[in-house]
Amino acid sequence: MISRNNGPQSMRAVIGRERIEAVARPGETYEQVAARLQREGNEESRLVAAPKLQPATRVRKPSKGDEQQDFFIPTVYDVGIRDSRNIMDVAVFRLSKKERRAGEVITYELRDGNVKVSAGPAGMASVWDYDLVLMAVSHLTEAMNRYRDGRGEKPGRVFRPHVGDVLKFLRRAYGGKQKDDLVETCLRLNTTHVAVRRNEKGKNGRTITVNEGEPLISRYKVIENSSGKPEFIEIEVAQWMYQEITGGKKPDVLALHPDFFLIGTGIGRFVYRLARRAAGKTEARWSFQTIYERSGSAGTFKEFCRILRSIVEANDLPEYTLTMEAGQSGPLLAMAHRRRMVDGAAGV
What angle do CA 87, 91, 94 make, to 5 degrees? Predict the structure, then answer.
C-alpha cells in the first residue's frame, strides 16, 4: 500500500494520481513514485530523440596517401572470350577471402552454353586477386587508345609495373605484407582456368559448339630487390583478353568507379560489377536467386540473402542505388544509376 505523505501537488498533477497508485512499489511515497516516473519518462524521450544508427558501411576507408592522383583512369574489362558479353554476368573468381576453394570447379549454365572456372592447388583466384587483371586491362586499353590515335605503338601482352604503382592503383596500403600478397595473387591468377562452351551458327547455317579457355593470366614473373621483397611484377595478359581489346575498332570495356577497390565484401563487389553490366546508366532488376547462382558463392542461399540485404540497407556502393522489391518467385534486387534518378527527379 502506498504511503500518503504530503508533498507538492504539482508533481501529482503532472503524473496523475491513478497512474501513481497503479505503479507504486511497496513502501514508496507519492513523491518517490512521481519522481521515478518522471525520470523514466525523460529517459524514454532521450531514446526516442536519439538518432537512428546507420547500417554498417560496405566500403572501406581509403588508406593513407590515397588522396594522391591515380596515374591511370581505372576501367573494368567485360571479361569474355571473343564477343561473349554474357561472361560479365558471372564471377570468374571466388568471392570469399577465407574459402580458398583449391581444386574446385564452378559451372555456370548460360542461355547459349556454359562457363567453367577451375581452381588449381594454390586456390581459386579471388575477386581481390582479380584487381591486378583490371589494372593490366586498364593499361592495355589506354595504350590501345593512344595507338589508334596515332600517339604510340601497338601494345603487347606483357605488363610490367612497379609494386608500388600496383598498390597505389589498387588503393591499398604500402607495406611488406601487401607486397608479399601480390606473389600469391599472381600464382592464383595463373592457375585459375576459365573455359567457355558456347553454341553458335556456322557458315552453313548449322549450329556448332565451340570450346575454348585460358587462365586469367598466361604467365607471371616477380622480381625481388636485395632485401627479398617484390619490386616489379611482370604478367602476360591472357590471349582472349588481349584479342578482345586489340582486335576490334573499339575495346569492349566498361568504366569502373575508382571506389570499386574500396568495396570491402566480395558479394558487394560482384553486385556492383553486375549493376555496371546490367544497368549501365539506367536500371535493371535481378532476382536474388539468379544473383546467387551467378555469383558462384559457396555459402547457403539463406546466408547470401542476409548479406545481400545488408548491402541494400547500407546502400553505399558507388554509382548505384539499391532497393529490394517483391517478385513472383522471391525478392528482386533493383539497381538504378544515381544519375538517372537525379535526371528523372528533375524531369530531364
Answer: 155
